[in-house]
Amino acid sequence: MDTAVRKERMGHGRGTAPCQPYDPAYDPLKSATPGQGRDYAPTYWIDTAGEPPADDGPVAHDMDVDVAIIGSGFTGLTAAIFLAQEYGIKATVLEANRSSWGCSTRNGGQAQCASGRLKRSQWIQRYGKDVALKLHAECVAGMATFKELIADIDCDPQPGGHLFIAHRDRVMPALEKEAKLLREVFDYDARILDADTVKRDWVGDQEAAGAMHEPEGIGIHAGKLAFGYLEKARALGVRVHPASPVQGFETRDGVHYLRTPGGVVKARAVGIATGGYTSQGLHRELKNRLLPILSNSIVTRPLTSEELNACNFKTTQVLTDTRVLRHYYRLLPDNRLQIGSRSAVTGRDAPHKKYEDLLIGDLYRKFPALTGIEIDYSWWGWVDVSHDMMPRIHQPNASETVYYALGYGGNGVMYSAQAGRRLAQWIAGHGQTLDLPIFTSRLPFPNVREMIESQAFAPFRRIGQRALYRWYHLKDEVL
Questions:
Q1: CA 216, CA 301: separation in Å to the nearest integer?
Q2: 283 and 314: one domain?
Q3: What is the CATH number of the domain that holds 163?
Q4: Is the same domain home to 435 and 454?
Q5: Tens-digit pLDDT profile for residues 314-323
Q6: Tell me: the pLDDT tens digits for 274-311?
Q7: Global pTM?
Q8: Among candidates 243, 223, 274, which has minimal Cα distance to 53?
């Protein structure tokens, strides 16, 4: 193989250019597809990651492949990597827009030892202690998988753990109880810090009433990680086709026909890894089984030494607070502050400046010394939340070789690596040995208090979401 061809396979060069502009009002519950060849959101990660690596260009003709993966984000690319590394299967990845266009380049870059949105104590309540312990072991294994994958990727890792900051005094008893459970039941070294210790030795978040420190947590540069996964996958022989949205999905005689604008991709197995950008009509097994939720993020200009001292930043570990409508934040390697939280309910409302202003106000409350600081980046993105707050890596129909990995609820930076490994395991024919509920059950339909589950509730989800946001605000700030 000559040098030019080798460099192209390794991902050196330029990725496929966008053929449509970024759509700030995109909404997965309204749009038939995420688009075709749309440009990236204007995130800090994309602006500072360098030129996107080379890909294989849009699908240009009918193709016959062994495995097709829909979605080229963290999950889709890691699944393709593990299929190649562990099973010798060279997958073909189909991406609607540019590589890692969705969740993977719009998140906060926080890798935590978690999957879904439930705490360990809630796992015990729902599944019992034995299953909860196995779920925890899966998360610990997931963190090991993540560390293994990023070891040779230059993604600006900031290791050290996760500081879960109590935003009010009244939440400290529950936090102390959870930390004790983590230590005594899960053998996970969580420890409680009082408010003075947090503000003196960690960070001067003026809301901090204490904190729980977890030993596992890594901050990463999301864009550099996404591009690193792309290079790693293509070096293993994976083909990645951007600007190739799946506009039709049929299964006949055990073969799957994926219609893209450039041709039909015929596959013997399909993995779906579309995250918060999963279209309602992509596949019948996914309609109304995810609730996409918007999250906003901002990044400041670099802080001066005086501002760093005023905010007493002594850690670069990942930070979150205890609100239901949670904030995630940290000091980046170039001394910028990134912070994110909830946003609008619909894509149409997402560009409204009031959501950015709300987040800026939250930043000022935590760090008054930064009042008036310039905001260099502002963006939003969709998070895939399942209706029972837990992810699924599953084969929904035993008679069809279609599999999905979805529903991380905002904890996909780390868990997508393990989900990709498990998705590869399913696709390679070894998923039957996976026995946890997240592997053995479908994504559920909307439900009422986890008692009545029905697709009939789907049209009312956003009405309920607005009501819940009001209730959560009261719970977080008033009651």
A1: 28
A2: no
A3: 3.30.9.10
A4: yes
A5: 999 999 999 9
A6: 999 999 999 999 999 999 999 999 999 999 999 999 99
A7: 0.95
A8: 223
